[in-house]
Amino acid sequence: MRTIALQSPEHRNLLDVIDKLRSRGLGKYVDLPEIVVCGDQSAGKSSVLEAISGMTFPTKDNLCTRFPTELILRRHAQNAVKISINPDPERSAEEKAQLRRFSVDTQSSEPDIGTIVEKAKEAMNLSETRKFSTDVLRIELCGPVQPHLTMVDLPGLFRAGNRGQSAEDALIVSKMVRDYVKRPRSIILAVVSAKSDFALQEITEMARELDPHGLRTLGLITKPDTLDSGSDSEAAYIRLAQNQDVFFRLGWHVLKNRDFKMRHASSNERDEAEEAFFSAWPWAALDNKYLGVKSLRPKLSNVLKDQILQQLPSFVQDIDIEITNCRNHLNRLGTARTTPAEQRRYLFQVSRDFTAIMRAAVDGEYNNVFFGSSKTDEGYRRRLRARVQESLTVFAENVRQHGQNKIIVDSEDEAELSGRQITRSSYMGEVKDLMRRSRGRELPGTFNPLIIGELFIEQCQPWDGIAADVKSDVLRIVYEVAKTIVEHVAVEETAERILQVINTAISSLGDELDSEFQLLLPSRAVHPITYNHYLTDTVQKIQEDRRRHKLREGFRTLMGDDEISPVDQNVYMNPSALISQLEDHTEVDMESYACSLAIDYAEAYYKLASKRLIDDVSVLAVECRLVSRLPFIFQSDAVFGLDDEETLRLAGESEYSTSERRRIKEKLAVLEGSKAELRRLNVHHSPACPSSSPYEDKITEDSTQTINEVEVEDRDSGKMTADQTQDGQVETETHVDSVQNDVSSGRYHSETIDLSFQQDIVDDFECAPSRVKKYKKKKKKNSVADDGQRDNVGHSLNVVNLAPMQPPTWSD
Q: Dynamin-type G domain: which residues (predicted)?
């Protein structure tokens, strides 16, 4: 955050830009840094504005604020007043235009604000039934003694309804004030009347809720003259002003406004009466920087300036985010679609985008932003190829693990069997019965080839269910991904209609996929067919494995060992017994031999067919009939063939979309125009160290010289004490520059410059002739700190001692 001096051209430019953004309606989309003046009705808010600006505001008891009032004060050589109304963004275009034409002849430098307010109420159509408005009355006041300051005055809060204001009106006002106060960039100027208990005033309750740590609230106590001298109430409000009972980071301030007797007094008379009041006990015990309007003006200017500078980086970032959101929304809405040509052009765009993303999904190239991150569930759900591959992998595993109807085991102990397992002897019995019923002209010891088909058909019965599962799963994936793509590339109101067309095309592909599955499933085949030599290889391997198993069992029985050791060893055995073991495993029953051989061939064929099924379902069915054809289901030729009626049905635009596009374009124009204005500032890129509030900045002890006392005679206020450098008498302007430079360089320390005097110096030097009458030089040197460093320095003339900050607390 860079440093900008009070009342400098940079300071004015900073506030002007923010005010311009506010008048454009940026506050509807992004929170703006601003000071909002709020408090209960009759708390003295209007008198506060009057004291700060010097204008006369209506303060009649029966005349309360009915709408937000933006008070813009700027220092200028000439007096000027400009009145306008900033319409609420929710107003219609016609109402906005009418309110923007509102103007009041303000040739006088002190216009009648009461008359202006009444005319504004009339322009806003306020009446007995509609008493409050969210339109903003803008009062721009320029003059040689005005500070650079902008504030928004809000209607006063009240609880109970009466004849003039209902309970419903109270809720309207409360919501309006809450909407301003809850904005995190708003500085809350909470006006509290000393006429009533602090804890009972509604603004205190709202501030507690919306700024619980008191970080952005500045308390302002009014009507201190109504307190009985020496009373507990007076003592309580003095403690409040000292930031003791209720701590605010920005502190408290006290104003004494005009009472009824002084209602016609001039601004100077009002200020003199205020100074006289605060010069008496007990208020004289307080530091002047917490009292009176003279110190309040620079305090508010500094608070607002620092808030803007501090919030500017995040402020610009929020605008950028909103601009991106607007552009994305406009891209989703597409161009206007009121004519058949525009509607067809929109469908071509959707077709092109859908085809490109679907092709990428099919190819497994996930570079498009649509696919997101693979680490998220949403990102994975959009990856078509990955999900199809996963589904087919599960399908292959299911065929291998659960595709065989009966699993033949060599164990003869049926107690050890589970699920689909069956002993070989039991299965051979079933096959023998089947062979007897299917016997043809085959010789004994052989089998009818058709028996293989029957055994195979029985074994692959689970395949139908497994295939149906993978088919439905792949189709579900395709429908889901297609729906997500359409929702990504098309407007919401057209997405559903376009998706109907795409789903119809996917359904047609699903029918072809189903037909392919019917052809591939072996349950529909006439008889097994293969020319793969792995069939005989597999049969021989099955038989060899079975013989090896039986030989192992025979040798184990012969040797009497549970396990055959793989290590070389001498073994003694009876040759006759060995021959007997080998003879026992020679099949002499021709029927059993044929049955066993048929089972072996059926098992071998099943292994070949299961592998073929996995590949055929993956390639011929899923890939060729469905997945590879997805990028072609909504191509431009399909759009080109639509007639005007069908084009209107698919791409026609509702009134909502038309108004939404208009709204987003208006919002984008405000955001982009605001960003262009902010580029003029070029301050959010400037490095600097943040400081505390400007009227609480300090300079440390590591300086070389104190500030010497000087007497300045002002044409209005007589003699006042200030500080000067040791160089003696200098011209006034040179003296101020010297003070500013030395403050910035860290040469001054330990002395306090009163804020009210600072502002007088600035005002006098810029607006009226002043002269330095006499200087009393008092030289005094202090030691220089070893490191030669200094704390963060505030703004030019705002240098005061700062006590350690207390933790934010609220108390009753």
A: 29-313
